[in-house]
Amino acid sequence: MDKKDLFDALDNFSQTLLVTLAEVEAVKKNLKSVVEENIALHLENDKLRERLGEVEKEAPTKTKKNRDNLRKLYYDGFHVCTDFYGQRRENDAECMFCDELLFRE
Q1: Contact of 68 with 58, CB cutoff 8 Å
Q2: At 88, is the secondary structure helix, strand, or coil?
Q3: What pTM did the predictor assign?
Q4: Of 30-34, 43-47, 93-97, which range is least confident?
Q5: Residues whose CB is less than 8 angstroms from the CB of residue 96 and which lie 6 or more positions away in sequence, other chains included
């Protein structure tokens, strides 16, 4: 291999290294933004879990109270289902939609 071929091969190798370095820098930049986004999402997720825990502590009493109010309306002869809400039940006949709403878990 003569000196010119050796120099050309070394020059090509140098150019390839520069291109590879640019690609590595681009990947590094993308990775940095992904890591930053991941950290932000983790923080937001932790805050949402904390808030959800607070809401869940309050929810059972509110839900039970609301369901008791709907049962009272139903036993007074009114529909509580979304299809016929507020309409009087004829002859106090049972409504499967109301029953499903009131007695589901």
Answers
A1: no
A2: strand
A3: 0.46
A4: 93-97
A5: none
